[in-house]
Amino acid sequence: MESVGIVEELVTEFLLRLPVKSLLRFKCVSKFWYSIIECPYFIKRHYQHNKNNSYGRLLVHNYDNNHKNYAFAVYSDETLDNPVYEYLDLRLNLSPSVYGPCNGIFCLYNYEDSMALWNPATREFRTLPKLPQLDLPSCPSKISQKILRNGFGFDLKTNDYKVVSIISFHEDCCSHDSPRNFPFYAAVYTLSTDSWKVLEERVPANSVGNVFSIFYTYSKGVYYWLAYDTNDQFVLLSFDMGDEVFRNIPLLENCIEGDFRGFHYLGLYNDCLCWIVTTDYDTKEANYVYLWVMNNNEYYWTKQWTIGPLVGLVCPLAFWKNGELLANSGCQGLFLCDPSTLETKYLGPNCLEAFVYHESLVSVKPRYEYQDKYGNSSNNVFAPNLFVVMPDPEDVLVGSDFEDTTTNPICFVN
Predict the structure, then answer these.
(1) Helix, strand or coil for residue 15?
(2) Backbone angles phi, psi at 42, to 5 degrees
């Protein structure tokens, strides 16, 4: 029995170092290997090993002129020394809003109130049920609801993935801007139940996300937006994925020094919330990028660095392994910039969005209770499901909605 344990430990250590694509194939080697790869504890260890021992993969979202649709591509070289990317299977007829990654998972929203969860490494794609229609007796009869903003993250208390949607209302005969006398409400989707729940609490804001940002702003169980509260004060609006409660965090006048004309972004820097300001001068003039980072104290920001002068208007997208800035520029395309040396590296043409993510085996399919060889059960959503990776008919939406092009199934082991 001791030798069996040693063999399992050796096999596990070997499998931990393999990419997701290889692990999906190696499920077919034997029942023994299959049980290891399916184990929730192994999935968590594999993801943490990826985070601790690799730079991650650079995923770009752009328009593919060859196929005339929106697509995602991953850079094959993790060092970015060879700036060539490979397109993934997922292609969309509309450009979605992308949230993530959270443990290797992305949430996609196509502005037609269609949402989906996607794991690029496993090619799993899951369409979420439609958002329920809210019944608000205090509002006029001829009103329509629309998703104003979304958030996506992980509930640290229940080990579950959640999507929160802030919902606005407008009269059908009027403009699509939400009147101020119509309060914002919110609904939460939970992966384990595959259902939405409308929150009774109103969202304490008059305007949400009015400052432009394309960064993912989930950190340590909380999602953040820039907003104006009900008193028209500029605040950080936060949503706790565990308590499912909104909270306003005041932004003090002196929390960020300077008065810069330009674009403001809320993002993440080394897993901490950050504020980025870029100047918007004419392309013939020098432009700068300023970065502040929120410390453990939610009311205090520390200036991290200033990048510049740079040529042309700069749109920050993400941060690379050692804090290098990934950004678009009308003059340079997609580039990488070291804030210390100002050395830049060209990575390709401009893209819509860029993400740094680590591959994971986390499944977005309906989960079942997992039981290991010792009889211990787990319903942890880090555990993938026992299934064949093929698109379900209800998961394939055509036309202006999402389209899943997964073609290669993973076989069962009998």
Answers:
(1) helix
(2) -65, -40
